[in-house]
Amino acid sequence: MNRTPRIRPVVSCTLLAVTLAAGTTACGGSDHPLAEKPYDAADEISSNVSEGDQKVDPDKPLEVTVDDDEGRITDVTAVDTAGRHLAGELDADGKRWHSTAPLAAGTRYTVRVGMEDGEGAPGSRTLSFGTTAAKKFLKVVFGPRAGTYGVGQPITAELSAPVRDRASRATVERALRVRSTPAVTGSWYWVDDKTLHYRPKEYWPARATIEVTSGLDGIRVTDTLHGAPAKALKLTTGDRIEAITDAAAHSMTVKRNGKVIKTIPVTTGKPGFATRNGVKVVLGKEYRVRMRGETIGIAAGSSDSYDLQVYYATRVTWSGEYVHAAPWSTGSQGYANVSHGCTGMSTGQAEWFFNTVREGDIVEVVGSQGETMAPFGNGYGDWNLSWATWLKGSALQKNPAPDRSDTIQAARLRPEV
User: Fold this and answer.
1) Which domain-ending residue is among 194, 221, 237?
2) Is the N or the C terminus of the chain less surrounded, counting Cβ atoms within 10 Å?
3) Domain boundary among 237, 270, 287
4) In degrees to the nearest 10, what's the CA dihedral of 91, 166, 186, 239?
């Protein structure tokens, strides 16, 4: 070691009643070892990685050691080009630090190491190295598309490959970040091994800004997969629009930001075709839709058969449940349920509703004899799960929910109004 020995003056402080001028001290603080500028400890600090252009395997942990018999490491900071900090742990004797999380692939790290020698003098060394690129990538696509939505719109994340292991799922979840202004409490839910949904504990705030980003780039997810870069997503929410249909009272109440703005006479599903209860989310709007009984299993020519051009249709399930104009049933609207599962109203009321709501707005049904809207597979029934149940769908929780893939697939295939 070619470092010049340090000669430290002996500093004595005498306890005297002395009045000191502002800005002075009784003791020479600059002579304290911790006040010295750290010396170059390149000869005393070593690592298991090669600096320069030679790339290292990201699957191997980073290790930093101090070679001075009496010295010890005080701190280590390892940051990649994306600004991500590498987690690590220092041995109790201060002689060795090692990473406790996988290194990212295809990036470069800057490692700053602090130490002190046997006399307490501070030393430092900065290391820089690159990691080899990944061979197989896990891609993620966020949804919906950028734009303005209602306060019930969940965020989706579609993965390019299945992720089944809980620890790997946790790695993915930690990297998928959702930030809302105003801030909310929310969580991801694993719908299946390639799909995640994110929702807050309550509906999104009105007029909120939501930003979704991925920190997966280069991160090891499984033994064969590393994360790929992902396009960020930015959404906003509009007013809080809620349409609550009481199927027993044959009436829909529409609220904007908690205030009732309209009450509409409606008809919902008759016996055998009862409308689903629960919270649904507007999926889209179609000015004209052809509706046929055969699509939901009604035989042509039967008493329940129909083939109609329907206007001002607001979709709430993928299988064909809408809020729409039903001029043929105006005599029953407000009095009886006569539809095949949709919510029908006069043409004028349907046009107003069509022009008032947007994707992501809330459409809730109560008082029906039908089943509750499924949480996944036929639209967005996410809000029909309690918050406690929703949290169980996260891989970061102690008691995750069981895999629902089979149930979800069945829901997608079942023909419904």
Assistant:
1) 237
2) N
3) 237
4) 140
